[in-house]
Recover the amino acids of this structure.
């Protein structure tokens, strides 16, 4: 009996029969992702007895068995805050350093250390449920690693943008890799095993066995669908993201001073000589808005061009319902993967830059605060006390070794901008982790389109172009209302509420309702926070 047979049988049997079938399958195959519940033993009289007390902690069943139990009985599913807490703790215990601090899975993991054992006892414990990180827990398109790509080419098979591979020689290892991508690739045509005929792949000619490593990187990154670059939870994808963020920071380090110098010249011509000396902060902001205008304009143009024919933007093809249809088998093209990576890198850099602008870290000298001066030196003590009091009023965090203080360059809207950047980065991570790149790309684009007139109106106001300022301000108000106060809540957020369940439960396969409850709450919380900030602004 295969796992597919068990999965199909679950949805035609009663809950008790399905549970029995699951137990029989896993007892025979011994394939487990989590420890199983301890089996009770029969005593000599034939009655069952358990070695643990009624309130003792019991090892949870496998993730698959938990999913089956949730499908047949949704009443046992805890509320979303408990599911999210369990999900985050499970993710944390998988991290390289944190996992050594978590108890071993054979004894129940972190759930075995809960103060109340009933909290971690499945199925009624509030923290006992383990949910999948993906909605779709069955067969799904795999994320191809660069190692898989190299092994395919070494065996004489190449991937292409349109989703096909060229078969030259048979290889069990390659067949095993291709089985992970059942829909993504198909045989285009065959060549003799000893052939050196160049193969044209999406307009690129490559001689088998002679491709350089850099060329393989290029083909993998820009001509292969469903790679690990589409999920920022992979270490390779995170490395690319942080590299792009470093490139952005290097560009800003070179470009922002030049943009600010341009602002000084325009400020002198618009406000008179000597104006820039008293408005240095506005000059710095001018350079920042020039950079933001260039970025938002570039990504908006790319977004409109790339998504112009995508079905989730076309109401006649189903509109936002396509963000969730065929979940698990949606193709992530290289253009989408890089769009997400660049947007994620920009938002990470924006959050880091905001923190650098708002805070300063200083070392603490204990002798400054606990002076050993003689008692008669009262004046020095008073001066030191005043200095310490003034410093502590600006201190955010104080320790005996260092302190974090508000910077002189901190902006008045720090709290709103920090909340906005933090929520945006969380949405980016979970959209990428959960393979909801279509919905995430829509959130990106409506923000970028409305940011362009905001940057233009502030630049026009800086140089006192009254007609341009009024025009840009009017366009900004219209775009803000349309994109952020209408499209985001009443199209995107409505789709998360209505279309997601319809597409993933009514039209699609039977999914894990526990995973849906956890992610549903996260998305609504994140999008709701953004909408609230937009209304406040």
């Amino acid at each position: 009996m295969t796992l597919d047979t068990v999965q199909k049988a679950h949805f035609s049997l009663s809950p008790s029969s399905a549970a029995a079938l699951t137990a029989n399958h896993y007892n025979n195959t011994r394939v487990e992702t989590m420890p199983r519940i301890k089996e009770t033993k029969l005593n000599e009289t034939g009655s069952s007895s358990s070695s643990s007390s009624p309130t003792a902690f019991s090892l949870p069943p496998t993730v698959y068995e938990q999913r089956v139990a949730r499908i047949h009985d949704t009443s046992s599913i805890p509320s979303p805050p408990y599911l999210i807490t369990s999900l985050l703790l499970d993710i944390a215990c998988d991290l390289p350093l944190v996992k050594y601090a978590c108890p071993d899975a054979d004894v129940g993991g972190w759930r075995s250390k809960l103060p109340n054992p009933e909290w971690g006892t499945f199925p009624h414990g509030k923290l006992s449920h383990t949910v999948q990180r993906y909605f779709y827990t069955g067969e799904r398109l795999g994320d191809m690693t660069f190692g898989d790509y190299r092994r395919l080419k070494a065996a004489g098979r190449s991937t292409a943008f349109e989703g096909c591979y060229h078969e030259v020689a048979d290889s069990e290892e390659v067949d095993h890799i291709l089985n992970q991508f059942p829909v993504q690739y198909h045989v285009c045509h065959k060549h003799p095993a000893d052939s050196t005929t160049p193969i044209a792949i999406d307009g690129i000619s490559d001689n088998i066995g002679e491709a350089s490593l850099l060329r393989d990187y290029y083909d993998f990154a820009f001509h292969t669908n469903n790679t690990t670059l589409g999920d920022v939870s992979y270490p390779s994808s995170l490395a690319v993201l942080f590299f792009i963020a470093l490139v952005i920071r290097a560009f800003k380090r070179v470009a922002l001073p030049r943009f600010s110098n341009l602002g000084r010249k325009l400020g002198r011509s618009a406000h008179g000589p000597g104006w820039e000396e008293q408005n240095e902060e506005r000059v710095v902001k001018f350079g920042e808005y020039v950079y933001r205008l260039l970025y938002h304009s570039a990504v908006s143009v790319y977004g409109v061009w790339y998504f112009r024919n995508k079905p989730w933007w076309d109401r006649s093809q189903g509109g936002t319902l396509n963000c969730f249809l065929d979940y698990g088998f949606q193709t992530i093209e290289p253009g989408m993967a890089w769009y997400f990576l660049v947007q994620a890198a920009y938002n990470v850099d924006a959050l880091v830059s905001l923190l650098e602008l708002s805070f300063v870290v200083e070392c603490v000298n204990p002798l400054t605060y606990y002076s050993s001066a003689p008692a008669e030196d009262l004046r020095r003590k008073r001066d030191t006390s005043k200095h310490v009091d003034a410093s502590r009023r600006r201190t955010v965090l104080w320790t005996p070794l260092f302190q974090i203080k508000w910077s002189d360059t901190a902006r008045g809207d720090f709290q709103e901008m920090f909340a906005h950047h933090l929520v945006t980065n969380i949405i980016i991570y979970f959209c990428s982790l959960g393979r909801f790149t279509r919905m995430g790309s829509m959130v990106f684009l409506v923000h970028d389109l409305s940011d362009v007139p905001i940057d233009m109106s502030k630049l026009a106001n800086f140089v006192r172009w009254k007609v341009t300022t009024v025009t840009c301000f009017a366009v900004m108000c219209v775009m803000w209302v349309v994109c952020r106060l209408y499209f985001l809540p009443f199209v995107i957020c409505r789709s998360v509420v209505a279309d997601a369940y319809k597409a993933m439960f009514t039209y699609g396969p039977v999914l894990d309702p526990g995973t849906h409850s956890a992610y549903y709450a996260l998305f609504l919380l994140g999008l709701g926070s953004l909408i609230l900030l937009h209304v406040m602004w």
Notes: Residues 466-506 form the longest helix (41 residues). The longest strand covers residues 359-363.
